[in-house]
Amino acid sequence: MGNLNASEDVNRSWENIKENIKTSGKDSLSLNELKQHKTCFDKECLGFLDQRKQALRQWLQDPDQTNVDHLSNVRRESIRHFRNTKRENLKSKIDELETLRSKISETCKWHKCL
To answer: What pTM value is reported for the model?
Structure first.
């Protein structure tokens, strides 16, 4: 009976140590949920990215001039689309910041958005 209690105590102690190590690691490393950084990257952007990958595969399989031209056109269109969506996203964020700045009571939100 004494051996069972001792082994249970050891197991509980190890579980406590294990939990303490995990919580202290999370606190010190500040492991939070990952943020989605590219909010402007939507399904339409994924479509352009897939088109670009497909054009690249076609060019790698058959590197003739028509595939080279097609690849360069698809790249140009996709980069243009990415740039425009990023600009639109930044403009909307700037407008949001301007409206928050106009409200004095929401200065904390304004500083967090920066």
So the answer is: 0.55
